[in-house]
Amino acid sequence: MSGPQHTLRRTPRARDAPARARRSSRRRRRTAAAVAMAAAVWVAVLSVQAAVHDFPRGVLLLGCGALVAAGAWEGVLRRGWGRVAGLVVAGAALAGGVLLLVDEGYLRTLLLLGLGAVVWHAAARSAFRPDVELPAAERPRRPVVVVNPRSGDGRAARVGLAAAARDRGIDVRELRPGEDLVALVRTAVDAGADAVGMAGGDGSQAVVAALAADAGLPYACIPAGTRNHFAVDLGVDRSDVVGALDALVDGRERVVDLAEVNGRVFVNNVSLGVYAEAVAREGYRAAKVRTLLDAVPRSLGEHGGSRDLAWTTPGGRTMRGAAVILVGNNQYRLGGAAGAGTRPALDQGLLGVTVVDPPDRRAQPRRRPWRQWETPEFRVEATLPVPVGIDGEPAVLEPPVTFRVRPAALRVRIAPHHPGASPSAIEPVGALAALRALARIAAGRDPRQLPPRSTPAARQPG
């Protein structure tokens, strides 16, 4: 593929635009956090004042205020149906208060209470947006982007990615059918590329990220795949495929971990058990749910692969059998909290291990059907080859299956107008933790819940 034809030139004002936008975003976040805290105090004071001044009738309004506040706050802290339920509770409490107390002269107080809850909810949501400031990085002189035109049902072609890259002075290398991705990237690096981007799915991202890390080059994730999980956790806006190319022009930089399983690099996770056996089955991509359900009885049966897995708990106890073992490049947030299914950080230098136990009627019920912990290394024993899903791609590994983390291995460039953080990076789990986070944001401190660990810097090009 031919090199760039011309370079997109920017005026000094245009080059300074990302910095101005970041400063403006920081001010808006601090303001939103301060407004959210003020609205929370307003709701509390209004409810307590009414209860004290008109006791005992005011106690009913205090209870109404507590339900409105709790529902609005759950609407911030939860996602999906949990968020809907919280907002429904808040609305129902307010409506109930109006019906019960309007004749008592509390209509004005109830309206002010509702207004305070709405402001609290909206301002907190704004303050917890996943948008962080990343340090500037030296502009690459010979950036290259590899495009897999088949990823995401041809998403790169639909958005005109190749032309947009050339307009930015980025060399484009297209991955043709049957071509070796590793060889293609190494050829580009040997030809003088000083930054490498990958436009494709997570499997391709892992290959290119590993090569960039080994070469000490900055890497950019262009979300041209189907789900783009790695892009989301890096803080790349997966709806802005073309805009992600700016990472290779004037991008900001963050350093993240990589992980390995039996020497093979992965960027998201490796699954063992039911899901891994389903992924390996023919027809999985055409009928995922049906294939997954069909795999459950066989995998969890007496001679199923899930029963063959043996692993050790953090306390040193050896366990056998698991419905699912998920080993992540850093830990995933699970449950109904906001940002669930993503990773709050990618720079903690630890694997995130999640184990879902197989069904057992004799076992004492647990509050959650899974257990989680973090560790720099993890090992799974088995007597037979182990089906796994590596970043969603099926594989079979010889036991033992050994995992390890590579701390601070990869320099990642992020477009300056993209979030730069995972959806779960800013918003904590728990009401009190969220209030502390709002106070920290209002004070102008780093909004991220998990600051980067002190790890060795990624290797620079020699």
Automatic annotation (TrEMBL):
The chain crosses the membrane at residues 32-52, 58-77, 84-101. Its cofactor is Mg(2+). Keywords: Kinase, Membrane, Transferase, Transmembrane, Transmembrane helix. The lineage of its organism: Bacteria, Bacillati, Actinomycetota, Actinomycetes, Geodermatophilales. InterPro entries: ATP-NAD_kinase_N, Diacylglycerol_kinase_cat_dom, Lipid_Phosphate_FormReg, NAD/diacylglycerol_kinase_sf. One of its GO terms (molecular function) is kinase activity. Residues 138-265 form the DAGKc domain. Residues 20-29 have a biased composition (Basic residues). Residues 1-29, 443-462 are annotated as: Disordered. Belongs to the diacylglycerol/lipid kinase family. This is Diacylglycerol kinase.
